[in-house]
Amino acid sequence: MTHSLHRRGTRESLKEDYIFLHIPAKGHNDAGHEPKLQEFLRIALRHDPKNIGTILLGNMYSHKIEEVIDAARGVVHAVFDNPEAVTAVLKELKEADLGISTVVSGIFESVDECFEKAGLKHHTANFSLGIWGNTKRLPPDDILEVTTMCGHALIAANLVKAMVAEVKAGTRTPEAAAKALAPQCACGIFNPARAAKLLAAMAAK
Amino acid sequence: MKITPDECIACEACVPYCPVGAISMKDDIAVIDQDECVDCAVCLKSGSCPVDCIVFEPAPWPRSLRTVFSDPRTEHKATGIAGRGTEEMKTNDITGRFQRGWVGLGCEFGRPGIGTRFSDVDKVAQVLAKHGVAFESKNPVTALMEDVKTGKIREDVLGEKVLSAIIECLYPIEKFQEIITALKEVAKEVDTVFSVEVINRAEPDGSYPLRKLLDEMSMPYYINGKQCAGLGRPLADV
């Protein structure tokens, strides 16, 4: 489950992409964990997340927010587009002391700063060494910047190309195209705000 | 996944949704290449078909592996959790799975968006085994190994194609360079792509010895990554 790790993009673009994972440890603290995950989602919702989701149901673009909260089980996610929100959520989580493991994905230096401002020390890191093997088979980088925001690879490169074509033709706005992609990412780590910018840039080429 | 030919209206709406490009138009109907299809059900769950003619019928072994390794909404029997890997570093503050002085390695085959046959996974797993890594016992790929000492994946699944399969293993940090060098070599022999990740426990001062090592080796790594905040309870003593 490395699904929020290998997101690609420029520093400028990744500065608007932060993902929280809130997950109990099976056999350690998973008994009765659901209300804690729900509380995490409520905290996240106070800070204007760009997405929230839980894998066994879906995300806020495929379901109503209350449905996502009710279905919270196993692991939940929230996506933000600015470090101030990340810091604010971390501070509230520290205060709430839910006891559930919390992982934040994003540019290392930015996340380090958020941890410091929230009075937290990082515990364990996961570094991406990139894509290896027969990389000639990969779609272009700009497509990958969108598709890798669904770490389970459920957003097809061809669907991104179709959305770019629609934006180019003026039949969808970049924002509408991003929201059409979002439901495909089952667990809700896709960032439609960032995707809209990437789609608009591709359509402008 | 299958499309009922008599019901398909050839609208092509489902075609772009397939993550591995296995749907195409032939003789004015949409068809799914059964050998390339990974049974992820994205086409079905997208709701793109206006006449509901995409169907999923659970397959017998070994094709049944395609769904559990491709649709993250299904739960692996080996892990007990949804998704393709394990909790890996996400809950390390509680499980203590990755201790100081060790490196966790993950190779996610087929990602992003290409898919993989288990024959490619097998090649790399056998190389890693020769270098003495400890495969993660709760990982679903490990569950397919005939012998974790050799890394050999069972013969009857090698031709199966899935959207993603992750090798997870652990080794002492002193062996990092040796193992990365071996991985680079075997990467030339695989037909698919794989995303590579490494995991490291922070020192008491918050630094990561692995990051220092990556810099010393001039090994490129992404500017973004994942960090556990240490908010889990009870904390593991690692």
Question: What's the arrangement of secondary structure elements?
Answer:
The complex is a heterodimer of chains A (205) and B (238).
Chain A: H1 11-14, E1 18-23, H2 34-45, E2 51-54, E3 58-59, H3 65-70, E4 76-80, H4 83-96, E5 101-107, H5 108-117, E6 124-133, H6 141-147, H7 157-169, H8 174-181, H9 192-204
Antiparallel strand pairs in A: 1-4, 1-5, 2-3, 2-4
Helix pairs in contact in A: 4-5, 7-8, 7-9, 8-9
Chain B: E1 2-3, E2 23-26, E3 29-32, H1 42-45, E4 54-55, H2 64-70, H3 92-95, E5 102-109, E6 116-117, H4 118-130, E7 134-135, E8 145-147, E9 152-153, E10 161-162, E11 165-172, H5 176-187, E12 193-201, H6 209-216, E13 224-228
Antiparallel strand pairs in B: 1-4, 2-3, 5-11, 5-12, 6-10, 7-11, 8-9
Helix pairs in contact in B: 4-5
Give an account of the 3D structure.
The complex is a heterodimer of chains A (205) and B (238). Chain A has 205 residues and is α+β, with helices and mostly antiparallel strands. Chain A has 2 domains: 11-117, Alpha-Beta Plaits (2-Layer Sandwich); 135-204, no CATH class. Chain A has helices at residues 11-14, 34-45, 65-70, 83-96, 108-117, 141-147, 157-169, 174-181, 192-204, and strands at 18-23, 51-54, 58-59, 76-80, 101-107, 124-133. The model of chain A has no long low-confidence stretch (mean pLDDT 96). Chain B has 238 residues and is an alpha+beta fold. Chain B has 2 domains: 1-57, Alpha-Beta Plaits (2-Layer Sandwich); 74-216, ACT domain (Alpha-Beta Plaits), CATH 3.30.70. Chain B is built from 6 helices and 13 strands. Chain B has helices spanning 42-45, 64-70, 92-95, 118-130, 176-187, 209-216, and strands spanning 2-3, 23-26, 29-32, 54-55, 102-109, 116-117, 134-135, 145-147, 152-153, 161-162, 165-172, 193-201, 224-228. In chain B, the strands form 5 sheets. Chain B has a 4-stranded antiparallel beta sheet, with helices on one face. A two-stranded antiparallel sheet of chain B has the order 1-4. A two-stranded antiparallel sheet of chain B has the order 2-3. In chain B, α4 (118-130) runs antiparallel to α5. The radius of gyration of chain B is 20 Å and the shape is elongated. The mean pLDDT of chain B is 94.
